[in-house]
Description:
The structure is a single chain. The protein is an alpha+beta fold. It has a single domain (2-201), classed as Transposase Inhibitor Protein From Tn5, Chain A, domain 1 (Alpha-Beta Complex), CATH 3.90.350. 32% of the residues lie in helices and 23% in strands. The protein contains nine helices and nine strands. The chain has a nine-stranded mixed β-sheet with strand order 3-2-1-4-5-9-8-7-6, with helices on both faces. α6 (212-236) crosses α7. The protein is globular. The protein starts with a helix and ends with a helix.
Amino acid sequence: MKRCQSISPQHKFRFKNPLFSLDSSLIDLSLALFPWSDHNRHRGAVKLHVGLDHRGHFPAFATLTEGRRHDVPVGRVFDFPRGSIVILDKGYTDYDWYKQLTDKGIFFVTRQRTNARYRVVERRPVSRGQGVTSDQTIELTGNQLKNKSMPTLRRVGYRDPETGKHYVFLTNHFGLAARTIADVYRDRWQVELFFKAIKQNLKIHAFVGNSQNAVLTQIWIALCAYLLLSFLKFQSKTGWTEQRIMRLLQANLFSKKNLMTLIRPSPPETSNLTPQLALWAC
């Protein structure tokens, strides 16, 4: 993971803060085959929690728990570097945790719950042409927060011009533009793409063993394989996806060839080619 970080590209935003998305995904299991994986009496599952690094979209933090484990206690375990920005969905709503992140110098961007109670302290002008409907400084006023010294938060409203849906975001970062806050949360979709890729391409929907240790081992191996594919992707600088590199390796599994030669083959010699083949080589 550290070698991936050393050669990965930067995320697409102008700010220099490290950017992570924190999310979890259930990996469904059959209760008949995996009776230890009881999730809700009707289905079995384990839960994969991932902190995705947006510098290359690879997992920088990961842990596995039982399917019924709540996201917030697991999210607290991840030790994000100071100054980083963490994107959270509403499932991670925990005001005490928001305060702890702020005290550690870690920024977050999340969705506001509809039942959140707050008081507006300041309103800032917004550019409605960019879809921003509000940019406010607020204080949370819930009953459970009366005796707690909660930091002020920033509340940003945004209407998606494509779908017409209105979103409200909460963050403790006051330096970024309001539209950037909305764009940062939209980029959280990358963690969903990661879960889709690791389930479909690395085959963790079918397991070679039925014990808990066998299942967890296979998922950890899949995560290690994804990091290796990401490292090859960054090292080759071809712009290929992890899926394309994996298919190439599968097709050459028993070939004794250098990996970089496979991914970056030398161009064919054009001197002895017919004009038609020479044109194709170009």
